[in-house]
């Protein structure tokens, strides 16, 4: 799987305003919460996508990507690799140009499908780490 180069990733992070975080937990001990908290503190609007939580960081959670009514720049995913393929229809139906799967999460077939549909795909990378190394200077 080929992720975009670091210059492209930096541009994505510079231009993004709204990030839908799929699998965002409302528990501060969870990695998804900690990563999203950094994004919120960096000024991004974070939309929690998790049918099992009410809200995170004061933002009402939605059950799926299809429930988001505003423009999303990045879909950031905290789900197991084998569950990524279930997300393809919703990601393709969304206008979000970037699909970002967190560290340890990847599926070559999903990446191929999304790339073919014109989406930028980043997998097996932590958005918090990339933000810190590329923008938080």
TrEMBL record:
SUPFAM superfamilies: NAD(P)-binding Rossmann-fold domains (SSF51735)
Domain CoA-binding: 13-105
Lineage start: Bacteria, Bacillati, Bacillota, Bacilli, Bacillales
InterPro entries cross-referenced by the UniProt entry: CoA-bd (IPR003781), NAD(P)-bd_dom_sf (IPR036291)
SMART domains listed in its UniProt record: CoA_binding (SM00881)
Pfam families in the record: CoA_binding_2 (PF13380)
Organism: Bacillus selenitireducens (strain ATCC 700615 / DSM 15326 / MLS10)
Protein name: CoA-binding domain protein
């Amino acid at each position: 799987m080929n992720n975009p180069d670091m210059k492209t990733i930096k541009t994505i992070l510079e231009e993004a305003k709204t990030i839908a975080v799929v699998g965002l937990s409302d528990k501060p001990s969870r990695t998804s919460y900690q990563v999203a908290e950094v994004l919120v503190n960096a000024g991004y609007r974070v939309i929690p996508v998790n049918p099992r939580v009410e809200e995170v960081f004061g933002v009402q959670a939605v059950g799926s990507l299809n429930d988001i009514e505003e423009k999303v720049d990045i879909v950031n995913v905290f789900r197991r690799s084998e569950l990524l393929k279930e997300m393809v229809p919703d990601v393709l139906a969304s206008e979000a140009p970037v699909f970002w799967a967190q560290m340890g999460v990847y599926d070559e077939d999903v990446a191929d499908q999304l790339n073919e549909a014109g989406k930028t795909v980043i997998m097996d990378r932590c958005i918090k780490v990339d933000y810190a190394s590329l923008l938080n200077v």
